[in-house]
Automatic annotation (TrEMBL):
InterPro entries: FAD-bd (IPR002938), FAD/NAD-bd_sf (IPR036188), RIFMO-like (IPR050641)
Organism: Amycolatopsis bullii
Pfam families reported for this sequence: FAD_binding_3, Rng_hyd_C
Organism superkingdom: Bacteria
Domain FAD-binding: 2-327
Name assigned to this protein: FAD-dependent oxidoreductase
Taxonomy of the source species: Bacteria, Bacillati, Actinomycetota, Actinomycetes, Pseudonocardiales
Length: 459
């Protein structure tokens, strides 16, 4: 076995597809016997949406999505960011429920040849042992990637620290079958009260989403409808006719970041590597971890890159999560700070965020918080046919875009690089070398610089 991915959540499935595109063998293990049908995320926001276009997945996701496209506004905690024209909105979104998202990703990974073993739980890393329906068995994967979520067993077994904070605020979130008129008096968005906050909203006709946040210890056992009623009475001072429960959950939010993303042959990605205390960023960052790591691991197992390339995964992705932790901590603070101090903070932050430059800066932090240069989706003409950069990137190969008939660069590129001679009115340079994850590793220059970028594409 070349690569074992632990966890068939969105990040593990995305990684499996990327590994297969790169030509690596992959087995995904998940302890759940069946896919997780809990609603959780309502969509994807940020650069991952553009990355799905690079893989030809945007259309499949759009078929599932309620909305797909640029966002004119987006909440930063309690403050609405307005990406008013003429500036191009920095954020794109696909509104698709997490179980549908996972179904699309599983279908794609399987089509590409990944094996998904559900009902198989990782027990130990050394020796690599999994407990399946027929008992425990061993394997010898060359690399193991923990995409096994917040309570990652891989992280624990690899001895990787997960410092940070978990706050005392409990979020109760439930979906209920109810008619909208029952909620005529309810507010949309979070209703801030002295004892906490309440959200009543609906994304699907006949289904109402109710959230209650309050500082309170987590009770034992599974969440119950009675508990939701009691929490509403405490925070709102009133009850709501919730209807028949479909799904109830309780979570406390955490702000945590793994100390390292790699320990020898073991890697972490997604929630196993980072937990953010405000919504909207976890899947964007987690799925982009998978895109960064997939081609690197595949190149190393295929023997076209050395093991050192794998160190660039931590170097490139850890700072992104650290920066995302900063912006989500601020969102959480803006949301949670109570009383007059909280009102003052929200008022002034809202005034600052109304400046277009500030809104754009925050929008870019939400988009990817990444300092690496990514290739823009330029319109091109290749062999007389119109196309786009995103379409050329579908095969997840390293591509040399030659915009100025640079025979010297084409010659220097060598056999592992796909060469695309293209006409482009907005070409940013004579030539670009673009990694499979869309990072520009070379931007015009001498053949020697191109050879260097190909030999050491990681930062
Ligand atoms: C209520 C709620 C709302 C959310 N809303 C949003 C949102 O709007 N936007 C957003 O971006 N994010 C949101 N999130 C967060 C998002 O759901 C997670 O970031 C995402 O699921 C993380 O994906 P993952 O693949 O890293 O981990 P997970 O989805 O947690 O998947 C981990 C998988 O690993 C498996 N596993 C664990 N241990 C083992 C083991 N030992 N052996 C084998 N398998 C194992 C588990 O069964 C699971 O399938 C929300 C989360 C919740 C709870």
């Amino acid at each position: 076995m070349e690569i074992a991915v632990i966890g068939a959540g969105p990040v593990g499935l995305m990684l499996a597809a990327e590994l297969r595109l790169g030509g690596a063998e992959v087995v995904v293990f998940d302890r759940r016997a069946a896919p997780d049908e809990r609603p959780r995320a309502n969509g994807l926001v940020g650069r991952i949406v553009e990355q799905l276009d690079h893989r030809g997945l945007l259309e499949r996701f759009r078929a599932e999505a309620g909305y797909g496209g640029p966002l004119p506004r987006f909440p930063f905690g309690p403050v609405t960011l307005d990406f008013a024209p003429p500036s191009r909105p920095p954020l794109s979104a696909l509104m698709v429920q997490q179980p549908r998202m996972e179904a699309v990703l599983a279908e794609r990974a399987t089509e590409l040849g990944a094996e998904i073993r559900r009902g198989h739980e990782l027990v130990s890393l050394d020796p690599f042992t999994v407990r399946g329906p027929d008992g425990e068995y061993r394997a010898e994967p060359r690399y193991v990637v923990g995409c096994d979520g917040a309570h990652s067993r891989v992280r624990e077994l690899a001895g990787i620290g997960f410092p940070g904070t978990t706050d005392g605020e409990l979020l109760r979130l439930g979906h209920f079958r109810a008619d909208a008129p029952l909620f005529a008096s309810a507010t949309r968005g979070w209703d801030r009260r002295p004892g906490g906050r309440v959200l009543v909203t609906s994304l699907t006709p006949g289904v109402v989403i109710v959230g209650v946040r309050e500082v309170t210890p987590e009770p034992p056992g599974e969440p119950t409808p009675e508990e939701f009623h009691a929490a509403l009475r405490r925070v709102l001072g009133d009850d709501l006719p919730l209807g028949e429960p479909i799904w109830l959950s309780r979570t406390t939010s955490s702000a945590r970041l793994a100390t390292q993303y790699r320990a020898g042959h073991v890697f972490l990605a997604g929630d196993a590597a980072h937990l953010f205390p405000a919504g909207g960023s976890a899947l964007n960052v987690g799925l982009l971890d998978a895109v960064n790591l997939g081609w690197k691991l595949a190149a190393v197992v295929r023997g076209t890159a050395g093991d050192a390339l794998l160190d660039s995964y931590h170097a490139e992705r850890h700072p992104v999560a650290a920066r995302t932790l900063t912006q989500t901590r601020v969102q959480a603070l803006l949301d949670r700070l109570t009383g007059e101090d909280g009102d003052a903070l929200r008022t002034l932050f809202g005034e600052l965020a109304a400046f277009p430059e500030a809104a754009r800066h925050l929008g870019e932090l939400l988009r990817d918080a990444d300092a690496l240069p990514y290739v823009p989706d330029l319109p091109l003409t290749v062999g007389g046919e119109p196309t786009r950069v995103a379409e050329v990137m579908r095969a997840a190969r390293t591509v040399l875009f030659d915009f100025a008939d640079r025979a010297d660069l084409r010659e220097a590129a060598g056999p592992g690089v796909k060469i695309v001679t293209a006409a482009c009115a907005d070409a940013p340079a004579d030539a670009l070398l673009v990694r499979p994850d869309g990072v520009v590793a070379f931007r015009g220059g001498a053949p020697a610089d191109l050879r260097e970028a190909i030999a050491a594409p990681g930062r």
